[in-house]
């Protein structure tokens, strides 16, 4: 389930057999309605900031977008490979995601899709991230390496594409780490079962990154 940027609606997917439907519910009245139905397993619906549209996944095969009223459903044009974690930039103009090549020996990359122009471009190659995140201005990325020999959390400056290792996550499944920046880019949080049970860990980043200020209208 995902709560929209304005906090008035929640979206979630329901599944029955091989079909799914996208549902939206108002958080005040509790009234739910179906946005769209699809003949595949749908997951991770994310409302688009500043626009009445919703992104959702077709497992790791594709990303789809639909208007909140159920019209103009379409698959985003992405390059070959499996689709990893994806999230909207704070202004809703672009979508950043991980691309996992079909060949596991190839490098996992961060890519950026602009749905309004049907364009997609490479942002940076990574140290085989299993999960990632970015700060509100999209100037810094954080990723969890999936290598068993180097189970680390790293940050990367977009301008230089250079990485800095922060710590080891040592999660049994690197994709569970789900790193997240605080809104001022001064903290990084991630999940791990490194001590035997799932827990949330926090890192101070004041020594490495400048403080960022949220844009007007952004969540605090």
Q: Hey, roughly how much beta strand do the residues contain?
A: over 45%
Low-confidence stretches: 216-220
The helix fraction, in percent, is under 10%
Radius of gyration: 18 Å
Short description:
The chain is mainly β.
What are the key terms here?
220 residues, mainly beta, Methylamine Dehydrogenase, Chain H, 2 domains, four-stranded antiparallel sheet, globular, disordered C terminus
Describe this structure in words.
- The chain folds into two domains: 1-70; 76-220, Methylamine Dehydrogenase, Chain H.
- The protein has a four-stranded antiparallel beta sheet, with no helix packed on it. It has a four-stranded antiparallel beta sheet with strand order 5-6-7-8, with no helix packed on it.
- With 220 residues, it is mostly beta strands.
- The chain has no helices and 19 strands.
- A hairpin with a 6-residue loop joins β18 (187-192) and β19.
- The radius of gyration is 18 Å and the shape is globular.
